[in-house]
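Duplicate of #3305? Posting structure anyway:
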């Protein structure tokens, strides 16, 4: 029994065959930590295949001359199986014997050598072992045979007298049946052939008279080798070192010898013959860091007693400590009653506000946690708290002038000494206060709902503001409108707590002037100048007269509009307006005028503007693609009274086109020509608010003439 942490601490080890007692003659404590405690070498005497731990006692501090602290703990396991190693010369586990190899008393498999165990033990003199101690006889009809005797030796058995069906056995040194000879083998060339017939031997060649020399195994004088092979070299039964019937073998590292004690073993990483080792923390190839014990302590004050004027100093130290010092603010320490420090045999001294504790004999305060001592004090300066000024915890004494200083945490550092109220229904209830006095308790004023004196509002909320003002959000943009509001305790549907919408009739995310066009109409996204478009173009004659509808959409109501039409193709015949009317403009009594390609419509102040918030049909236009002669007629007609009907205009154009001598212009339309009618960009204007605001609307696409 030696080594380990006990060896490092200088402990003495005493042991019997089954018990170990270790202690320190110099009363040196085994430091807190973990690792290999002892190295124990042993052998089993009763064939046990497991090592059992029956009892463990670990002591702590010596409490008195007759008592000692017994530490509690647990065992990782109580039974450790033993793996027997046959051939190591030590009888282990279920082994019957172990002589480090085969011996007269022990087989190679560590079982006792006994004739009849079906294991041939050459060292014990056995030639054979058929698993019994009976000498068998030959089979029926066999006059001679070789058997394994009751002493585990080969024996030739012959049957006396006539044996029916006798069969000769060549090579058994017994001439049977029709054998001419039998020299004990079945080798040709030795005077007696392999079939036991006499060979013609020549004198001087080793088989004169075919007599096997004494001690030889054939007529040539060869002898059986150690492997019982006639004339052999002993290699057929050699071990790894070349020794016939030797005990040497290859271990798992391919090293050959007959000693199991030096067989290579697996390291902790599972490598045979490897060098990886387990560190002191039980980690393979570790660096002992995984089980390093923190040297950081924690300290606090507990159990303040306002009657006894006392408190306890609580310390948790993960490493053994050699000394302790603590300083407070200007309290007056009356007495210090030791607790953990007393158990460690430490001397405790104090001044009015400082405590020192250490051992005169070098005893360490064991790692652990608990109350170091109870401090009784007075408060002559009427302090409002006990404050910890500093704490020093020392560790191992390195030399006469050096000692380890532990780091740690003091939390909290201040402990209030003020009186507190212990009534849980009081406004100033303080269960953490050091002193309690019901006279300092305060309560809610009568009729109040909290300690501040607040009362319930109209909505039943303590200290609340009462019903709130909610603002309508008609356009659903998340902004309330200041002109429409109600008071309520709960938010009504469709109302918000803000009045930020500049126009609740205009649903616009930006909520600024970008939501409106130049006329002030709601136009989210800047699309508020309206849209003018041509629709439903139809041919009203075979002579190039057409009718088209004009549609308009704009924010608000328009009191006038103007637009210009043109052909998209330069080669198209000349376009000329014939008539303009119908639609909403005529219904609302707008005044309509036009020239060749421009239309104007407006109303007088006593009339009603057209609401074009939805896209509507505002006017019809009739136009022609005419020759020069036709256009002259049209020009005259346009100067006539406005009361003439559109049909009259069309009829006049038809009569003009029927003249035989009427020349046809080069640019006149033909049946196969295709043209488009467009609204001219930049020429369309919408008038709103009595003409005070004008917009330039967007224009629809050109339309194909039928």
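Output from current build:
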């Amino acid at each position: 029994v030696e080594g380990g942490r006990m060896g490092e601490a200088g402990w003495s080890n005493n042991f019997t065959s089954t018990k170990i007692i270790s202690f320190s003659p110099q009363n040196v404590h085994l430091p807190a930590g973990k690792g290999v405690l002892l190295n124990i070498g042993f052998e089993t005497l009763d064939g046990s295949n497991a090592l059992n731990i029956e009892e463990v006692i670990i002591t702590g501090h010596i409490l008195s001359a007759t008592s000692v602290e017994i530490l509690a703990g647990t065992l990782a396991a109580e039974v450790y199986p033993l793996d027997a190693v046959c051939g190591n010369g030590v009888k282990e586990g279920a082994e019957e014997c172990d002589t480090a190899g085969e011996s007269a008393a022990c087989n190679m498999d560590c079982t006792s050598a006994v004739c009849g165990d079906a294991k041939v033990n050459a060292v014990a003199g056995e030639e054979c072992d058929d698993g019994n101690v009976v000498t068998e006889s030959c089979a029926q009809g066999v006059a001679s045979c070789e058997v394994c005797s009751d002493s585990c030796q080969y024996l030739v058995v012959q049957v006396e007298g006539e044996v029916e069906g006798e069969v000769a056995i060549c090579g058994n040194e017994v001439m049977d049946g029709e054998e001419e000879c039998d020299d004990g083998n079945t080798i040709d060339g030795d005077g007696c052939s392999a079939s036991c017939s006499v060979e013609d031997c020549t004198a001087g060649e080793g088989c004169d008279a075919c007599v096997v020399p004494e001690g030889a195994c054939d007529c040539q004088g060869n002898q059986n080798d150690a492997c019982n092979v006639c004339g052999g070299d002993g290699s057929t039964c050699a071990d790894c070192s070349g020794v016939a019937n030797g005990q040497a073998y290859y271990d798992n590292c391919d090293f050959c010898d007959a000693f199991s004690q030096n067989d290579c073993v697996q390291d902790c990483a599972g490598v045979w013959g490897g060098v990886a080792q387990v560190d002191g923390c039980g980690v393979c190839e570790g660096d002992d860091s995984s089980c390093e014990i923190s040297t950081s302590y924690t300290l606090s004050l507990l159990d303040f007693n306002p009657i006894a004027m006392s408190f306890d100093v609580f310390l948790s130290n993960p490493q053994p400590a050699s000394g302790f010092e603590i300083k407070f603010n200007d309290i007056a320490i009356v007495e210090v009653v030791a607790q953990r420090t007393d158990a460690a045999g430490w001397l405790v001294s104090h001044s009015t506000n400082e405590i020192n504790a250490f051992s005169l004999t070098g005893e360490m305060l064991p790692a652990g946690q608990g109350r170091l001592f109870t401090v009784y004090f007075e408060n002559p300066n009427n302090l409002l708290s006990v404050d910890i000024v500093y704490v020093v915890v020392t560790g191992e004494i390195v030399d006469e002038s050096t000692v380890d200083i532990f780091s740690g945490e003091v939390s909290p550092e201040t402990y209030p000494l003020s009186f507190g109220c212990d009534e849980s229904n009081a406004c100033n209830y303080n269960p953490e206060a050091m002193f309690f006095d019901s006279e300092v308790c305060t309560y809610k004023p009568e009729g109040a709902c909290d300690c501040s004196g607040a009362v319930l509002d109209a909505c039943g909320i303590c200290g609340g503001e009462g019903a709130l003002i909610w603002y309508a959000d008609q356009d659903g943009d998340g902004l309330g409108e200041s002109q429409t509001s109600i008071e309520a305790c709960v938010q009504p549907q469709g109302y918000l707590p803000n009045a930020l919408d500049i126009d609740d009739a205009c649903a616009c995310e930006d909520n600024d002037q970008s939501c409106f066009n130049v006329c002030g109409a709601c136009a989210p996204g800047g699309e508020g100048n309206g849209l003018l478009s041509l629709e439903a173009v139809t041919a009203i004659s075979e002579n190039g007269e057409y009718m088209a509808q004009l549609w308009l959409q704009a924010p608000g109501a328009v009191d006038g509009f103007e637009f210009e039409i043109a052909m998209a193709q330069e080669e198209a015949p000349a376009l000329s307006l014939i008539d303009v009317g119908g639609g909403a403009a005529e219904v609302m009594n707008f005044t309509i005028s036009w020239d060749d390609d421009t239309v104007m419509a407006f109303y007088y102040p006593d009339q009603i503007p057209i609401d074009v918030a939805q896209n509507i049909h505002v006017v019809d236009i009739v136009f022609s693609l005419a020759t020069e002669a036709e256009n002259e007629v049209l020009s005259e007609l346009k100067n006539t009274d406005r009361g003439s009907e559109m049909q009259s205009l069309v009829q006049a154009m038809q009569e003009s086109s029927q003249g035989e001598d009427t020349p046809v212009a080069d640019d006149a339309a033909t049946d196969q020509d295709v043209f488009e009618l467009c609204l001219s960009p930049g020429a369309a204007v919408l008038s709103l608010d009595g003409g005070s605001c004008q917009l330039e609307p967007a224009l629809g696409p050109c339309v194909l003439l039928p």
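Confirmed duplicate; merging threads. The mean pLDDT is 80. Residues 646-657 form the longest helix (12 residues).
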